[in-house]
Amino acid sequence: MTTTNINVEAVKDSAANLGRIMDDMSAFNALRASFPSIGNFDLAQQLQVIIDDRRNGVVAHADQLRISLDEISAALNQIATNVENIDNGNAAAILAVVADLRTRVSEDLAGLGDPAS
Asked: Which superkingdom is the protein from (predicted)?
């Protein structure tokens, strides 16, 4: 029989730290503000579209990162809580939570798309 050990407090601390990474969204909130037009001629309009697209992309990625980190934090807390309350018959429930976390992280990463675009 295999035994598994986990430092529940360390997992909870890690979850809390992950959850706080994106607490300060002020830089991204500043990007949400309307910026003045850079001009009314054709090249300026084309450049404005590119700038707006990139700015909106950065803000969207930051929002998605915050959501992902919050979900990971919640899942780690759930895992730690389950481990605290576990008996031999509840191992499958923990495996399901971990599998769900892996799926969510994979989906979130896939949803971010190519950062170079």
From this structure: Bacteria
User: 72 Cβ partners below 8 Å, 6+ apart?
Assistant: 15, 18, 101, 104, 105
Cβ atoms within 10 Å of 8's Cβ, excluding its own: 14
Angle between helices 91-112 and 42-84 (to 10 degrees): 170
pLDDT in tens, the chain (117 residues): 777 778 889 999 999 999 999 999 999 999 888 788 888 999 999 999 999 999 999 999 999 999 999 999 999 999 888 887 775 556 777 788 888 888 988 888 887 776 555
